[in-house]
Amino acid sequence: MTHDSGSGPTSGSPPGSGLERRLFTRREPAPNEPLRRVRSRTGHELDVVDLSDAGVLVEGRARLLPNTHLDIHVVTHAGRVLVRCRVVRACVWHLDAERIRYRVALAFDRPLDTSAGSPGSAPFADLIPASRTA
């Protein structure tokens, strides 16, 4: 399997342009950050490779098919939040005799604040009903 170099017809940018077309900046979560792992509502553990306010790239043993929807539990400094996602793409990332791992791109249904923030911050406060925050 070959990986795209980030230029050419599949990336949408001319070769060598260095143009970033994403609306939101991607970042890798810190090792001690709660966003390092997420869990699907059905219980599948997924390791976060990188994330942005629009979605997350995860790796795990769960086979998730493109264009399907799922809910994931995201643990933030404010607590656990259930987020609706769509599987944008998925591929086999690691294969050996004992296991198979997939790498899956998930798009959030709406932009979320996934900034690292300080322990006192609430990056997903907009998703918690007002009656639960009072």
Structural description of this entry:
The chain has 134 residues and is mostly beta strands. The chain has a domain of 86 residues: predicted glycosyltransferase like domains (Thrombin, subunit H, Beta Barrel), CATH 2.40.10.220. It contains one helix and six strands, in the order ββββββα. It has a six-stranded antiparallel barrel with strand order 1-2-3-6-5-4. The radius of gyration is 16 Å and the shape is globular. The N terminus and C terminus are likely disordered.
Shape: globular
Q: Strand sequence of the main sheet, in spatial order?
A: 1-2-3-6-5-4
Question: Which structural category do the helix and sheet elements fall into?
Answer: mainly beta
**What would the CATH topology of the domain at 34-119 be?**
Thrombin, subunit H
Annotation, overall tally of beta strands? 6
Helix proportion: under 10%
Q: What is the percentage of strand-forming residues?
A: 35-45%
Radius of gyration: 16 Å
Q: What's the story with the biggest beta sheet?
A: 6 strands, antiparallel, barrel
CATH architecture of the domain at 34-119, by name, is: Beta Barrel
SS element count, helices: 1
- CATH homologous superfamily caption of the domain at 34-119: predicted glycosyltransferase like domains
Say what oligomer this is: single chain
What's the pLDDT, averaged over the residues? 76
What is the C-level CATH assignment of the domain at 34-119? Mainly Beta
What are the secondary-structure elements, in order, as H or E?
EEEEEEH
Measured distance between first and last alpha carbons: 51 Å
The stretches of 5 or more residues where confidence is low (pLDDT under 50) are 1-13, 118-134
